[in-house]
Each structure stands twice: as C-alpha cells, then as structure tokens.
C-alpha cells in the first residue's frame, strides 16, 4: 500500500513539475519555444519555475493532506486553514477561482460566501479544475468511499461554488479508491469516463480543449491514462498537450502512479523534484494514518 500511496503522490508532483513550464502554451508554441517536446523538468515558463519545482497543484494537495492528518474529526475546517496559510505565503501562482475565493474569505469569514463571491466575479464560471487537482490525498488517506467522497466534495465547495467541480472530485475519489481496492486499471478508467456522459470516442481521441474547465481536464487525464504504455508517456504527453498542462499531468500522474506504484516511476524524475523529502514524509504519514482507519 505504501508503494501505491507514494506512487500517487509522487506521480502527481512529477506530472505537475514536468508540465509547469509549458502551461498556457499551444503544442506548436511548446515545440518552437523548447526546440521539440518537453521530456525533462527544465523549469521556466510564465512563472519562471525552477527545474523540479511544483506548482499550486501539488502545494494544495499537500494542504489537503495536512488538513486531514491534523484534524481527522473536522478536516474541512483544517483544510481551509491550510489553504489560507499557503495563500499568505505568497505562492508564485494560484488559479483565478481559488485566488478569488481565498481573497473573499478574508472579507466574509465564510467559505460559502467566499465561494459564491468568486463564482459571481467569474460570471458563474466556477467549474474549473482547481479543486479536482488537489483531491488525490483524500482517498489515499480515507479507505471508506462514502466518507472520502463527502470530504472531496466539501473541500471543493470551499473555493468552487459550481457543484460540477465537486461531482468530478467525487468521481476521481471513487477511481482512486477502486484502484487501491485492487480493481483493474483500464476498467477503473472506463467506469470513471462512463460518468461523464460523453461518447466513448472522447476517451480514445478527445475533441475537447485541454483547458481548465473541470470536465475537459478530467477527459484528458483519463485519455492519457487509457492510451499510454507507461508512466513516462502519460506525463510527457500531458506536458506537451498544451494549455493546462501541469494540472492534466498532475491528475493523470496521480492516477497512473497510484495504480502502478512508486517503483514504476522513472528515478530521474523522482530525484529531480525539489520537494522530494516533503513528499516522502507526507506519503509515510498518509500510510500510517490510513492504517488507523481500516
């Protein structure tokens, strides 16, 4: 189980760090700017990331993990506190929906009001992928599916008012739980995809853009997991798909890494991560916490 937990968390971080420099670029721009496909953690990009540096995807996932680890009786309140502490640390990049919600929380002192204000400021477009990207630690920590799904949806609503975002957090949580329960990988992906109400062809050859809309991001993550031969292919394809490359890589990397485990991850990617020791520590804490929940 520790192999799968570490595989998921490190898989998320690797997909995130590999895709960070190419975020917001089109595939043709990536090829032009980097002289071909990005296959290593080279750093750079819009926020001048260091090689091996992870973004808000990994940072907020760790916030979720710490929130549950530090307060298993009332994790949502603690997760919110972790988000605020991270926000006050002035990170390089925060997704617009999350940034607005955290800003409005300081005004309203209410997560529901903060999420609604962010929703209104975005003209009702609050179904972004910012809550899906941080969901992975929940099913890693909590084996009970119903409880894990409830927490995943609740943590989504802290910042994302649209219930669509919460629903896909729940679907992702179910997928990770099914993986940890020993289900076959492609059947897990197919089951998750079946809940999106899209033609099967979208899983094989997506026509939707690889942008930050939660449905589109999830389609691309499932597609990459379903059609790639190994972990490296998953995250390299994600880094070069264009637009929201880091989040697609994080979600797909988390899925693939959880199933195939830490030992399946390329060692050069693991060693390149700047927060490797923190990921090791949190993975071990998750493993021991999970054992107390069974």
TrEMBL record:
InterPro entries linked to this entry: ADP-ribosylglycohydrolase, Ribosyl_crysJ1, Ribosyl_crysJ1_sf
Secretion signal span: none
Cofactor: binding details: Binds 2 magnesium ions per subunit.
List of residues binding Mg(2+): 55-57, 244, 246-247
Any one GO molecular function term: hydrolase activity
Record keywords: Hydrolase, Magnesium, Metal-binding
Superkingdom classification of source: Bacteria
Cofactor(s) required for function per UniProt: Mg(2+)
Annotated TM spans: none
Pfam families listed in its UniProt record: ADP_ribosyl_GH (PF03747)
Family per record: Belongs to the ADP-ribosylglycohydrolase family.
Protein name (record): ADP-ribosyl-[dinitrogen reductase] hydrolase
Naturally occurring in which organism (per UniProt): Bacillus cereus
Lineage start: Bacteria, Bacillati, Bacillota, Bacilli, Bacillales
